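Feature request, filed as a ticket because there's no other form

It would be nice if the structure record came with a short human-readable summary line next to the tokens. Right now we just get the raw output. Example of a typical job, pasted below so the devs can see what we mean:
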Amino acid sequence: MPRLFQTIRFRLSLTIALVVFAVGAVLIGGLYLWQVDRLEQPMLNSFEVVVEDPQTGELIETDLRLFTREDLNRLAVEQIEVAAERQALEQLRRASSVALAVLFVTSFGAGYLLSGWALGPVGRITRVARDISATDLSRRIEMQGADDELKQMADTFDGMLDRLQGSFEDQRRFVHEASHELRNPIAVAQTNLELALQTEDKDELAEAAKVALRSTQRMGVLVEGLLEQARSGVPELQLERIDLGLLVSEIASEFSAVAARRNVSVAAATLATEDLAINGDGPAIRRAISNLVSNAVRLAPRGSTVELAARLHHDCVDVTVVDEGPGIDVSQHDAIFQRFWRGQDVGAGSGLGLSIVRRIAERHGGSATVHSAVGSGSTFTLRLPGPIADRDGSTAVRDRLT
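Raw output as currently delivered:
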């Protein structure tokens, strides 16, 4: 069966044509029968001649020879009229057949055009759906006009595409963030394992093994967190007591081997760690600081030093990462924290690290800022609420974080 015969447009046009044809046939057929009924009466009177008996008053059949010439002439004229009416009815029948055929074709054509106009939005929806690819869900129907059923269907389709695009963007963001989050501990573990294979010193071998073990453990935590995020969206913060001074020292030690390959050193300031304990999500805060250090090491010039420090700032703790890199123009200070932003000197960066840092900081009730100028390096500051006054956990701080 040809494709045309299977379309809704053809079937709708055929239905319209059949309905119009049936209505026309009923009307013309009724008119024809009414004319035939009118024709039979004079025809019968022409051949069944009856007269009234003058004596009894009864109607009796009479031979045509009893009529006068005038009566016969009248009957002849009446027969001619009957024949003419019969011929007219025959012509009416033929004309009606032609008219019904023309009506069927015309109504089918009109129905085809009207149904095409009415179903135009459906065709537009189909074309948009065909143009949508697996990686581009930006096309929309955006139908204008009256708020009828088809526009409502198109708007519903656009809404569905919005939801699909949002889900697709979430999935793509999850993949990018997963790869970005795993890159740092993988690089740290790989570098320290390579160092362990090259050294014969037992102390250096043990230290490299410890760093690699911590990195693989952190990768396991990251994988679990990312899987949890994929299942339930943004995970809740798992608050615990975090010693930021100790955490900064550990991160500096972890990145020392990675930085040494670029002839860059990583130094952590000596801090009073007992004054820098906060309530927060340990793995998340570690990821935020590691992202800052990773960027600094990647952009720092050879022979320079990346400095990490943690210090009190009123009722907060500031973690700063200072590098001697190319610096950032003041006009870009806010843009660099946007997702997928990449500057001209970022190398192989994905544009996600700083957006993750800011999101982690804001979820903890803190902030992430940068102080930099072109040619003078950069200072990134991760400000987190704290320190905790009560070693068992402060309810006020916990409420502020959640």
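Something like this underneath would help us a lot:
The beta strands are 50-52, 59-61, 239-243, 265-268, 277-281, 305-313, 316-323, 367-372, 378-385.
The CA atoms of residues 331 and 373 lie 10 Å apart.
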